[in-house]
Amino acid sequence: MRLALDPQWKNALYIEEKIIVPKNVIINVGVVASVKLLSGTILEGGADQILLPYNWSEEWVAGYRFVTSEPLMNYPVYSKEKLNEIRKK
User: Fold this and answer.
1) 65 by DSSP, 3-state: which?
2) Which of 46, 47, 49, 50 is nearest to 26 (CA)?
3) Residue 35: in which H helix or E strand, if any?
C-alpha cells in the first residue's frame, strides 16, 4: 500500500537491489504519492522514494535479494549474482 504500485504498471516488487551511489552524484528523495486504481481503491503511498539520475550505471548495484512477505529479523543479505542467475536456483 505504501509503495502505491498500480497493477496496470506491471511493476511487481519482488527483487530489491542494493545500490551504492558514488560521491557527488545528485539524487532526489521524496515520498510516494497516493494512486487511485480503476476500481476506485486508493493506494495510500507514503513510503520513501529515491529517484536516481537518468542513465545511472549498473555498476552501482552491489547486490540483489528477493523480497518476501516475511518480516526482516536480521539485516538483509544480498547476492552479487545477476537476477537471471538467482532465478535459475
Assistant:
1) strand
2) 50
3) strand 35-36
β-strand partners of 55 = none
β-pairing verdict for 35-36 and 48-51: unpaired
Burial 65-83 (b: 16+ CB within 10 A, else e): eeeeeeeeeeeeeeeeeee
Nearest to 4 by CA among 54, 47, 56: 47
pTM above 0.70, yes or no: no
* pLDDT in single tens digits along all 89 residues of the chain: 788 888 888 876 778 889 999 999 999 999 999 999 999 999 999 999 999 999 999 899 999 888 877 777 888 888 887 665 555 55
